[in-house]
Amino acid sequence: MPRLTNEKGTLVTMANPKSTSxxxxxxxxxxxxxxxxxxxxxxxxxxxALSGEGKTTTIGNLAVTYAQEGxxxxxxxxxxxxxxxxxxxxxxxxxxLTSVLSSQYKVTEVLxxxxxxGLHVLSSGPIPPNPSEMIGSRKMTxxxxxxxxxxxxxxxxxxxxxxxxxxxxxxxxxxGVILVVSAGKVKKDLVKKAKAHLExxxxxxxxxxxxxxxxxxxxxxxYGEQA
Length: 227
What we know:
With 227 residues, this protein is an alpha/beta fold. The chain has helices at 12-15, 20-33, 55-68, 85-88, 97-101, 131-135, 138-148, 166-171, 188-200, 217-220, and strands spanning 43-48, 73-77, 112-113, 119-122, 153-157, 176-182, 205-211.
């Protein structure tokens, strides 16, 4: 993938939907849709081996492209340790997923609009003392079943695979996993280790995204970057 935000840090699919970077996301969306002919891919986890690989930016752009296609989309921030989705869409985070799982709020009370038609965000909420236990709880499973009745696509942002067990727990709830790899940043053996961890819990890996690739001008000149 080429770099996915504009110079102001805005998601490129929102700021410049006709750009080649945005087109790369539409291709990713299409590839996911065609990765399984016999069963629907409704719940998708976006993962990375380490932090700082562009996982959250990737999931934000992918969520926007699904919504632009006319899907009803929910982006869930299940990184209950270092959440960031709320900042990307400039929504509050004083209540969120953890508030629902701790029975303080109903999910309908904490869903946030994003300014993109059809796209809602469920932010992490206050950081709990027991993130893994919350993610792996029966309440989480029941919540997801309810949300699947309301949304066409649900995307999960998670902590890095090699950092904590949370991502592995979430992967068991999802139809598929996309592994984001930052070009030139992460060693190949760490990517293989993350992949092995996911496979060990029977996660279905749909594919990988090579992120932050510098695309030569000759390859991006067909459509052109439109400001």
